[in-house]
Specification:
Layout (H helix, E strand, L loop, with lengths): L3 H10 L3 E5 L18 H4 L2 H4 L2 H6 L2 H17 L4 H11 L3 E6 L5 H5 L4 E3 L2 E8 L5 E3 H10 L12 E5 L8 H13 L2 E5 L10 H8 L3 E5 L12 E3 L3 H14 L1
Parallel strand pairs: 1-2, 1-7, 2-3, 7-8, 8-9
Antiparallel strand pairs: 4-5, 4-6
Helix pairs in contact: 1-11, 6-11, 9-10
The structure holds nicotinamide-adenine-dinucleotide and zinc ion.
The site of zinc ion has 8 residues, from loops.
Length: 249
């Protein structure tokens, strides 16, 4: 077990801290991760439910999945101690930004104000024709009438404002993420298996820029070897402890 005191000391000494989160930070909020035991993709084939070519061929797969699985989970999910700890580090003036692979909006709900969402946000629904945006609750009302749900303005098909498999990340968002990672003094990675690129490049960018790197993930990751700290305990416990120690130092 690495010394949390030394990690907290390094954080307290760092001018600019950034965080990079993945699905694991939201698992204690009741949102399943994608990979690993109990992961969503062990039950639902991403080629059918999260692939843009399949969505364009038949959007009803995604929308039935959203109605029966995604929506009930999102409606119940609240930010947990890990999200709140990062928001508090920001309010203390320590944390500059959160880069996230998550699409659940829980960082913002916890109070983080600078959140770079690499894969978009599934609480925002967009008309594929007129680009009008709707909330998930509005979309749910539409899809109770018909699947796929249609835009009441132009009858275009709605889609979530997320990056599907088969789509590329928005260059501006990726640039922002790389800039934050490459210029911070300390990057805290929380709850990511670090196997999806280009997102998995973010910790490498941080190290190249001279930052210290902590990986907080219950399973090993391919980047553990380059990290200064690797802690394999649940994110909520560990970030609460780290926050307390930073406050004391
Ligand atoms: P992932 O599922 O590949 O990896 C999650 C990691 O979190 C695993 O390595 C697991 O060991 C770890 N983990 C699980 N519970 C943890 C806990 N309590 N504390 C610490 N670590 C924990 O997720 P990923 O790396 O984010 O990549 C998957 C992709 O799936 C991303 O592209 C993301 O957009 C998407 N996704 C998003 C959500 C969400 O928005 N909440 C949920 C699932 C997947
Ligand atoms: Zn429309």
């Amino acid at each position: 077990m690495v010394s949390l005191d030394s990690l907290a000391h390094d954080l307290a000494q760092s001018g600019t801290i950034a965080a990079f989160s993945g699905a694991g930070i939201s698992s204690e909020s009741g949102i399943p991760t994608y990979r690993g035991a109990g992961g969503l993709w062990t039950k639902y084939d991403p080629n059918l439910y999260a692939n843009i070519n399949h969505f364009n061929r038949d959007p009803s797969y995604y929308w039935n999945f959203f109605k029966d699985v995604r929506y009930p989970i999102l409606k119940k999910a609240k930010p947990n101690r890990a999200h709140f700890a990062l928001a508090e580090l920001e309010s203390m003036g320590k944390l500059k930004s959160v880069i996230t692979q998550n699409i659940d909006g829980l960082h913002q709900e916890a109070g983080s104000s600078r959140v770079i969402e690499l894969h978009g946000n599934t609480r925002v629904m967009v008309c594929t024709d007129c680009f009008h945006e709707y909330s998930i609750d509005e979309a749910y009302v539409f899809l109770e009438k018909e699947i796929p749900p249609l835009c009441p303005d132009c009858r275009g098909i709605l889609r979530p404002d997320v990056i599907f498999f088969g789509e590329t990340l928005k260059p501006q968002v990726l640039d922002d993420a790389y800039r934050e990672a490459g210029s911070c003094d300390f990057l805290i990675v929380v709850g990511s298996s670090l196997v999806v690129t280009p997102a998995a490049d973010i910790p490498v960018m941080a190290k190249r820029g001279g930052a210290k790197l902590a990986i907080l993930n219950i399973d090993p990751t391919p980047l553990d070897d380059i990290a200064d700290y690797v802690i394999s305990e649940p994110a909520g416990d560990i970030l609460s402890e780290i926050l307390d120690l930073v406050k004391k130092s």
